[in-house]
Specification:
By secondary structure, this protein is an alpha/beta fold. The protein is about 25% helix and about 25% strand. It has nine helices and 17 strands. The model has no long low-confidence stretch (mean pLDDT about 95).
């Protein structure tokens, strides 16, 4: 039996320590990935701290994996040994329910997260169902692609879900780990892009990333000046929103789409929805097909996250940098034990 070497926490908010385990026999639908890089997502911190009440310990984080295929189950399809691949938030779905057969595998009632009841990618190897192990297109840098597989598809999917045309005006709330990728996607989609921030010092960088206009929402009347001008707003932050003010910036039939894990309920004024026939929605990451489309779009338009790298052996330093809010904008671990 193979032994996997990883970094795991023994308890909530605990440090990550070297951890070895026997993964058992490779399942018929499973793929083993030799991990070269793994991004750190804020969801890894939330799971490490058990903020959502569903973490199991010992806990191995990591769900933005890139690497190469090192083993294939007998029923694994579409992949070959040595192929460059990526793995995101999800690692298994049933493939037989209505959602899976409709192409919405990520909405399967039995979908399994890469770090939910499984050991994730802060390791030398990781396993997943073949469906979720996605080939990486030529032109993508394997060292930077990991964050696209979770954060990237999370902010790419709203453009598809809301049938956004290239003539649309799109707002992005938050210029951070998610938002800096959303700006790039919306710009290359062809949209007029508006960035919402609370800091003037991010204006120049936001424009370099694709924003045509930058709005500091701490300034009086910043939202009122945008009344009935936006088709879609993608909120990437995990802080409370001025839902009423944001809805007023939308055109009739506009959408406010939330992908930030806000723990407090949103306060939604009914008449703001009714009178403009507007909607508020949200979404998780995306199906395997949407991940593929996002990767191809990224390769075609040279879209990549802004990253910092740490050796995986320094994972606790990397987590502390993310926890302190100093990461700009995504951290990627390099497997230095391969």
């Amino acid at each position: 039996m193979p032994t996997y070497n990883a970094y795991a926490a023994k308890s909530a908010k605990g440090p990550l320590e070297p951890f070895s385990f026997d993964p058992g026999e490779l399942g018929p639908e499973e793929v083993e990935i030799k991990v070269t890089h793994c991004g750190i997502c804020h969801s890894d911190l939330s799971m490490l701290d058990n903020e959502w009440g569903m973490s199991n310990y010992p806990f191995v984080p990591g769900h933005e994996v890139t690497g190469t295929v090192s083993a294939l189950g007998d029923e694994a399809k579409g992949l070959k040994i040595g192929q460059k691949v990526g793995l995101g938030w999800s690692s298994y779905s049933c493939l037989s329910c209505h959602e899976c057969l409709s192409g919405d595998h990520h909405l399967c009632s039995t979908v399994q997260g890469t770090i939910l009841g499984r050991h994730g990618g802060f390791a030398d190897r990781v396993r997943a169902q073949w469906t979720w192990v996605r080939p990486l297109p030529e032109g993508l840098d394997i060292a930077k692609t990991g964050p696209l597989l979770c954060g990237g598809v999370t902010v790419f999917a709203p453009l598809l879900i809301n049938d956004v045309p290239p003539t649309a005006s799109v707002g992005v709330i938050g210029i951070g780990g998610l938002g800096h990728m959303a700006l790039q996607f919306a710009n290359k989609w062809g949209c007029e892009v508006h960035a919402f921030t609370t800091s003037d010092n991010k204006e120049e960088e936001a424009k370099k990333l694709g924003a045509h206009f930058v709005h500091n929402t701490k300034k009086p009347d910043a939202l009122k000046k945008l009344a009935r001008s936006l088709d879609l707003i993608i909120s990437t932050i995990n802080a409370p929103l001025d839902v009423s003010g944001l809805l007023d910036t939308l055109k009739p039939k506009g959408h406010l789409h939330n992908v930030g894990a806000v723990l407090k309920p949103l306060e939604v004024p009914a008449f703001s929805l009714i009178l403009g026939q507007k909607s508020i929605g949200g979404s998780p990451t995306g199906s395997p097909v949407v991940i593929d489309e996002m990767l191809e779009f990224s390769a075609r338009h040279s879209i990549a996250p802004i990253t910092e790298t740490f050796p995986m052996s320094k994972v606790n330093d990397a987590l502390e940098r993310l926890r302190s809010g100093k990461a700009r904008y995504r951290i990627v671990l390099v497997n230095d034990k391969a």
